[in-house]
Amino acid sequence: MATALAFAVPEGSTVRESLEGHYGNPLVRLTRRVEKRPGIRTVWSHWVAAGVPAAIAQDVEARIDQEGVLHFRLDKQAAFRERLELAQDSDPIDVRLKLIAYPAKPAEARRVAHAILAEAP
């Protein structure tokens, strides 16, 4: 999982969190948070080269929540094999992008998302 996450999000440091499943089974959640502009640009360029923005642009309206967060899921197994593609199964890498929009309203976040995705080749 760490290898797939590092390929899917090539910036930021990995945080490991131990959790417990419904039946008491141990779970581990790995997260990466990218906040600085150079890191964001690196990750976005990586995703653009793989065609991720074009794939999520088709149903962007359904991917934005009321807080202005754009959601999509990457295939973990494909990322492990150093390919980026949207997930089709139930074991994905969950990606959440907080969109900066002013005023901070869902309609403005959707406008920003459309603009960003339209700029990606």
Describe the structure.
It is built from 6 helices and 4 strands. The protein is an alpha+beta fold and 121 residues long. The chain has a single domain, classed as 50s Ribosomal Protein L5, Chain: A (2-Layer Sandwich). The strands form 2 sheets. Strands 1-2 form a two-stranded antiparallel sheet. A two-stranded antiparallel ribbon has the order 3-4.
Tell me the strand order in the biggest sheet.
1-2
Number of domains: 1
CATH architecture: 2-Layer Sandwich
Taken in chain order, the helices and strands follow as HEEHHHEHEH
Summarize the structure.
By secondary structure, the chain is of the alpha+beta class. It is built from 6 helices and 4 strands; from the N terminus they run H-E-E-H-H-H-E-H-E-H. Helices cover 41% and strands 23% of the residues.
Topology summary:
Layout: H1 2-8, E1 14-20, E2 26-32, H2 37-50, H3 52-57, H4 60-63, E3 69-75, H5 76-80, E4 92-98, H6 106-119
Antiparallel strand pairs: 1-2, 3-4
